[in-house]
Amino acid sequence: xxxxxxxxxxxxxxxxxxxxxxxxxxxxxxxxxxxxxxxxxxxxxxxxxxxxxxxxxxxxxxxxxxxxxxxxxxxxxxxxxxxxxxxxxxxxxxxxxxxxxxxxxxxxxxxxxxxxxxxxxxxxxxxxxxxxxxxxxxxxxxxxxxxxxxxxxxxxxxxxxxxxxxxxxxxxxxxxxxxxxxxxxxxxxxxxxxxxxxxxxxxxxxxxxxxxxxxxxxxxxxxxxxxxxxxxxxxxxxxxxxxxxxxxxxxxxxxxxxxxxxxxxxxxxxxxxxxxxxxxxxxxxxxxxxxxxxxxxxxxxxxxxxxxxxxxxxxxxxxxxxxxxxxxxxxxxxxxxxxxxxxxxxxxxxxxxxxxxxxxxxxxxxxxxxxxxxxxxxxxxxxxxxxxxxxxxxxxxxx
Length: 399
Description:
5 strands
């Protein structure tokens, strides 16, 4: 009948939702605002899509995680996709100089980036630079090698024929008006189309081009393809670059000149590089599931080391201010002032040091409080001694 007949709990906040005997619980509303107050039978709710519209990327400087993915695409495929899209958008600036900014600015969601609408060219340029830097990290090759692999991949894509008629249709497509696209183009407006694209571009193209197992052989082929030297000269040059020449065959004088390079500087071990190397190969997730799971969320767990101090500082604040201070007064009192008033200033300061570290490391990973999404403007909030004490005292509303 379309009316509620069972009570469940919200998986996020635990609040009871639904209803009994075809009636909603008190305080609950239908997802479909058009059915609000409608208690008739056989009513079907139509959920409103609240997904943000437009281009919803943040500033390039906030794109710090190299392992961001979209649906079934790997981090390398997703980053390559972003790099190509942003490069194309930036090049379009040269084609439409007069009205480019006016045409492209409305595409960006201002809630995610005000800079994107004010100066879209700079916004896109910063993303091109950021995408390139992250892609080089993911591939774990020099920029020259990554550029060579990318060029050879684009050459392959340019000669690749994709049969768009092979895309399975959805039943709902028959009810939609046809979407007009340029010849040879396809709009990814259904799940099957998106799946087809991700398989064709991601798994069958990008992932193969940057697969670590065969990257050496592909680089040799690419170097021959784009080398201005003769085939024989290019082959020797490539072998030297790949360090595959038998040193016994080289002249003694050359060995005397080159062997000191055995003690050349090598970059030290870092957790970031180790994590990246582990995650590049999808097979490692199955081979080392615990290690892979830990390292994939390691950045989120860093704040845990400060958890005891954070709890102690919050306990100290509650013991001193709970039910003895109004919200307006708490907004005017800074954490530094509260510490100055404390009887044991050293204990308060040490506890706050841990609280501040825990907040500044972990807050950026918090997306919601119960069912309330954290506004974008608050996600960059930092805590220091100038912060109002109300940010420390737990409460259900406001800050």
